Amino acid sequence: MPIKRRPSKAKATTQAPSAAPISADVDCDEITILSVIEDLLPNGSHFEPIEKTGDASIDHIQRLLIPPRWPADVFAVAAKLMEVSGCYTEASLVDGHYLRHGVYINEVLDAADEWRRSGQCPRVVKEWWYDLLIVHGNVGLAEIKASVPYSPVILTLMRLLSVADEASAGVGWISRGEDKATEITERAALSLLDRVGEVDRAALLPYVPHSICEKVPPTKLTVLPKSLTPSVGCTVRAMSHHLALLPPTTVVQSEWVLPDNGPSGNTMRLLVIPFPFRVDDESFVAAGPTREMDSGAKMQPYFTVKPTWLKKPRTVTAKMLRDELIAPLVEQAIAKFGSNSIDGVLFPECALTEELANQLLDVLARRPIPGLKFLITGTMAAGEPGNETYDGQPGRNRAKTMVFARGNVKLSERVLYDKAHSKHHRWALDKDQIKRYGLTGIPSPAPLKVWEHIAVDGRQLPFLALHDDLCMTVLICEDLARADPAMSVIRSVGPNLVVALLMDGPQLAVRWPGRYATVLAEDPGSSVLSITSAGMVDRSNLGERNPARAVGLWRHDQGSNTELYLPANHQGLVLTVIAEKDEQYSLDHRTDLKTTRRWKLETVTPLAVDADWL
User: Cβ of 490: how many Cβ atoms within 10 Å?
Assistant: First the structure.
């Protein structure tokens, strides 16, 4: 008998209605397991030919009867069902007995091992999938809940989620050594790498880098590799070690970046350059007045940022940045720590214009700096101020990531990755901030705020697998403090390191960056580095009796905040961070076998250069 979607209580019907997308205003009593699966797999779950029966209902079910061959699709279905039903709260103990739970873990690990070794969906997983569709397909989401005896549908969902998660161990990273590579990890890596050589294009995953699913479209949901499993809380993201369930690309366009620029050890050094070292009052310009509208509404005022630091005392060029700032600092680091000692260079929010950053990329590609794997900088494009009748043109505030190949490669292959993503939230200056920074060109119409005049483009969030055991993401100022839309994604993926580029005052543990860094350090356990420009720190300190020139703040899991101070007449800080092994456990008690790495700050080394324009 064909399985049908449960008819609405308001109006019974004998027809199986088409699947409806899951939304917040749909009564869960009207949604069944089958309808969710139909919604997530609109083109079916498999690629096998279907023998037509003449019965549309039976033919429809045949499109879903075989489980997806790719683990991420099985994970997407099971994780989504557990999330929308809330039944993940029952994952900690099968049938209330640890011996039965041990049996569940063993059968999941055995099936996952077979899936990894063969590259084919195991028979037992096909049986679990069949059980989900045929036995439990008509179960409504509201019925998937705690019960005595233990609900069999919850156990089926747990098995499918966990086996897909375990089968995906190592997905999203470069497998170093034949003993670590599987067909699953190799297929994912080939799909994610920009240059894959002569491979069968049909074998590549269709939705990378935004999702590693094969059958579930990214407009439904997305799945990406994962770094950290939360050690606190009871959420569906705590159910997995290797895969993350994320919103569709229409909500936030997440991206997994896998540039293969060589193996790495357990030590990484980051060169923080808190440029600009001077920010003038004239850098902040009023961009639009307060405007009265009907019914008491008010259009709040805007401000824009002009990069005067790039014009005075001399016009800054990409060549000057490389030859008189970045390269001399790297050379000093090499003298202290050895060759190829600097992995990445970090500049704060709005440090460079978009044009200058692109020119710097070209200069670094043509004349590489030894050992440099990546450079991340805040970029800006100033907006056009408005007036009483004209709203002007918004500017742009972005974070640009450049990733470079190591070794002697031809010019066309030196840049592995070059993209910029926009700030998700505008800065709102209040009266106290305007006073503290001494911004005489900005009116302070309290209680109104003055808003940053930038475009908020489609939300993007890159996760950069820049190191064998480092997944890093980059936020821009306000995005560190706002929950939507980035924070739920960050907590699901669990990057090892979150870098926040700020245009802010001193990075002190008692200020807002310290508070929000503490939240991420606890859940999902990320290390957090916030950096700002020395020029903004100095502006903020104008009225301070004991100014604190803290241009950065580091926080890691189970550690305290470390304020990063820039001494006078210095232009860079080298942060030496060490990767330490950690064992993590999922909500259902599976171990990750100590594959997790946590980055902890070891030392901070200030460096200085001699350049008259700084």
Answer: 23
Cis-peptide, bond into residue 506, ω within 30° of zero: no
* CB proximity list for 412: less than 8 A, separation 6 or greater: none
Domain match, 187 and 288 both = no
Whether residue 564 is contained in a domain is answered as: yes
Nearest to 77, CA basis, from 169, 159, 161: 161
User: Would you say 343 and 577 are in contact if contact means Cβ atoms under 8 Å apart?
Assistant: no
Give me the helix-helix angle, 98-118 and 123-130, nearest 10°.
120
578: left (phi over 0), alpha (psi -120 to 50) or beta: beta
Q: Region 117-134: what's the mean pLDDT?
A: 96
Which residues lie closer than 8 Å to 99 by C-beta, 6 or more apart? none
The CATH code of the domain that includes 490 is 3.60.110.10
Identify whether the C-beta of residue 558 lies closer than 8 Å to the C-beta of residue 522: no
Let me know: does 379 contact 400? Beta carbons within 8 Å.
yes
The 3-class SS string of 530-580 reads EECCHHHHHHHHHHCCCCCCEEEEEECCCCCCEEEECCCCCCEEEEEEEEE
Q: Is 193 in the same domain as 271?
A: no
Band (215; pLDDT cuts 50, 70, 90): very high
Domain of residue 115 covers: 28-205
| pLDDT bucket at 1, cuts 50 / 70 / 90 | very low
Q: Which two tokens stand for residue 134?
A: 């045929």
Q: Are 283 and 306 in contact (CB under 8 A)?
A: yes
pLDDT mean over 340-366: 97
Q: Which of 163, 183, 205 is the last residue of a domain?
A: 205
* Residues 338 and 485 both lie in one domain: yes
34 inside domain: yes
Q: Is residue 4 part of a domain?
A: no
Q: Please state the φ and ψ torsions of residue 213, each to the nearest 5 degrees.
A: -75, 155
Do 532 and 504 contact (CB within 8 A), yes or no? yes
275 and 191 in a single domain? The answer is: no
| Residue where a domain terminates, one of 154, 185, 205 | 205
**Total structural domains in the chain?**
2
